[in-house]
Design a protein that fits this description.
Shape: elongated
Distance between the termini: 57 Å
Number of helices: 8
Helix content: 25-40%
Order of helices and strands: EEEEHEEEEHHEHHHHH
Number of domains: 2
Largest sheet: 7 strands, antiparallel
């Protein structure tokens, strides 16, 4: 990601933007879907802005991000957008979460890949999403491409008490493996095929049946005349 830009627009010549980052001044000229980037020395910035204004460029009120869309025939493609590039995923967004300092996104991508390869997520969709995860600097976005992707990220977010941001209200407050039915109901808005989310839960080993057995096991450990496993642990320790 290349920062936030003050953007100047021209009715026929496209747009020109400038981003001041500490001692660096980055510029980007966007015309016809093509991007030309450059670095400016700080003392050149004011004359360059004046030149653009004299040429008919007008500064717009809202600052924008520079969205880079790859190369074509050796030319860089892109556009200025108000949407953060890491959230402009080109498909419906279920939710997103923030990347914290210290998060190893490469390791996360590797971990999620190992889990999701056991499901029926299409390989090309999985690889496209994992590529975005590996490149993430601020946000990890979850698309409505397959419920298994949403479930594994939700498990990580909720378990780590991280922020989960979604336009859809009623996000479950416990991890999918503990309350699979709540997540199935919440994701039903995005995944409407019969049993689509339920099948993903089964593939991940987080079905309603799995949750019931896990809860029963916990209940049995915490019950009994001997005070359960806590009492057993105390008797060993002392």
């Amino acid at each position: 990601m290349s920062g936030v830009y003050d953007v100047y627009e021209h009715p026929t010549k496209g747009a020109w933007g400038v981003s001041v980052q500490s001692m660096r001044v980055l510029t980007a000229e966007v015309a016809g879907g093509l991007v030309r980037q450059a670095n400016l020395l700080p003392h050149i910035l004011a004359p360059e802005v004046s030149k653009r204004v004299r040429a008919g460029f007008k500064k717009i009120t809202r600052r924008k991000y520079l969205q880079l869309d790859g190369e074509e025939n050796g030319l860089l493609k892109g556009r200025f957008t108000e949407d953060h590039p890491e959230l402009a995923i080109g498909e419906e967004l279920i939710f997103f979460t923030t990347v914290s300092i210290g998060d190893d996104v490469a390791a996360l991508a590797q971990q999620w890949e190992a889990v999701l390869e056991t499901t029926d997520v299409r390989p090309e969709a999985l690889e496209a999403w994992l590529t975005r995860v590996r490149r993430a600097c601020q946000y990890i976005a979850v698309p409505a491409s397959h419920p298994a992707i949403a479930l594994v990220v939700a498990d990580w977010v909720v378990d780590g008490r991280r922020m989960l941001i979604s336009d859809r209200p009623g996000v479950p407050q416990r991890v999918p493996k503990e309350v699979p039915l709540e997540w199935e109901e919440w994701l039903a808005y995005f995944f409407t095929k019969h049993n689509e989310t339920r099948d993903a839960l089964v593939q991940l080993g987080w079905s309603v049946r799995d949750a019931m057995f896990a809860n029963q096991a916990i209940a049995s450990l915490n019950s009994g005349n001997d005070g359960g496993w806590l009492a057993a642990a105390a008797s060993v320790a002392f």
